[in-house]
Design goal:
344 residues; binds flavin-adenine dinucleotide; nine-stranded mixed sheet
């Protein structure tokens, strides 16, 4: 019989992020499939009661919490100690956690301490005769593997966006506090503050409903024989500002910076989608000024509805890669779209 534990951390405001609720849904489904074997929830944060209340009615047998000012911020020593203490208290055999940067950094080490194993980039869990298997993708999302292990504890880091999120379960939870002695480990690292881009400069938004992709066409000579990069930058910026879409790019466009050409200032290689970029998960995608070549379009495999705007009626998108292709000038289309979304 498995002892299932959902391991989450709070956000800066004390709440649980969508990725935590996705892992919760995964745990609920798993516990149900294992014949109601039940599960516990472990929460780490400065204060955990609000987060526990957010999911009080989720069906967990118990809530374990590690809290205090030392656990407000991500730090290897304190996070690993907290996770280890919760897993030990819960006597967990399967630990499901959202693959946030905070847990990604720490849980492989915790698995090592507890003589367990860890799976990263989990995109699905299944059961057969009470044996649990996990799915994950390899070789840049080209091959899907199904894995099972007998070693316990088994840590499963679930990729954000790969599961539906648990909807509503608010109430009042009773949280059992788990004590963690940080005396030694905390002396080594002191968090002095956080440096992060301003909200507007943060263009990668995994939770956004729309992926907006920019291609090298935005920097090419247009019908008047001139390039219009500042105008392109303004159109893209305004669209993102109004819609809060996540910004993706083709490789050609992000590579231009290295060649000293005029580029869209807020794009970096982190925005690159494709074979040598990322493979995000958004319900919808809109590609603009991009040719839709295979090494790029392969990064769209988890985007459910795909649309593209390109001047070229024979581009890659036209060859079965997009659901809808608008053969049109993206400058004209996006300026009209911006007008409409601004009016909304
Ligand atoms: C090993 C390898 C790995 C690679 N990995 C990746 C990867 O991870 N991601 C990636 O993106 N690429 C990758 N590539 C490169 C990829 O093959 C393409 O070269 C690249 O995606 C092309 O970028 P693009 O479509 O933006 O530019 P282009 O091919 O230059 O296309 C620009 C498009 O913009 C259109 N356009 C121009 N002006 C307008 C306008 N006003 N309105 C509408 N449309 C307009 C043009 O018609 C054209 O179709 C890889 C290549 C290799 C060999």
């Amino acid at each position: 019989m498995e002892n299932i534990l959902l391991l989450v951390h709070t956000e800066a405001d004390g709440s649980l992020a969508k990725s935590a609720l996705e892992s919760l849904q995964t745990v609920q489904t798993l516990a149900g499939a294992l014949g109601g074997s039940g599960f516990s929830v472990g929460i780490v944060g400065e204060k955990v009661q609000a987060a526990a209340n957010q999911i009080a009615g989720c069906g967990a047998a118990k809530f374990l919490g590690v809290e205090g000012a030392e656990f407000a911020q991500s730090r290897y020593a304190s996070d690993a100690a907290a996770a280890e203490a919760i897993c030990t208290t819960a006597q967990a055999t399967i630990i499901v956690a959202p693959a946030t940067s905070r847990w990604n950094r720490v849980l492989a080490g915790v698995a090592q301490r507890l003589n367990g194993r860890v799976e990263t980039h989990v995109t699905g869990l299944s059961t057969e005769n009470c044996a649990v298997s996990v799915s994950r993708w390899y070789y840049r999302q080209r091959m899907e593997a199904v894995l099972a292990r007998t070693q316990r504890p088994w840590f499963l880091l679930v990729d954000p966006g790969s599961q539906p999120a648990c909807q509503g379960a608010e109430g009042t939870a009773t949280v059992e506090t788990v004590a963690v002695d940080l005396a030694d480990s905390c002396k080594r690292t002191t968090v002095t503050g956080l440096r992060q881009p301003s909200a507007d400069a943060q263009t990668i938004r995994p939770d956004a409903d729309l992926l907006f992709v920019t291609g090298a066409g935005w920097t090419k000579k247009q019908a008047d024989g001139q390039t219009h990069v500042p105008e392109a930058e303004k159109l893209i910026y305004n669209f993102l500002k109004h819609t809060r879409a996540s910004l993706g790019s083709s490789k050609s466009l992000v590579d231009l910076g290295g060649e000293g050409q005029a580029v869209i200032s807020f794009l970096t290689h982190l925005n690159q989608i494709g074979q040598t970029g990322s493979t995000p998960r958004h319900p919808k995608g809109l590609s603009t000024c991009c040719h839709g070549e295979e090494p790029h379009a392969v990064g769209w495999r988890f985007i459910k509805e795909r649309r593209a705007i390109s001047l070229d009626a024979n581009c890659g998108w036209a060859r079965g890669k997009a659901d809808v292709l608008y053969v049109a000038d993206a400058f004209a289309v996006m300026s009209k779209v911006n007008e409409l979304v601004a009016a909304k």
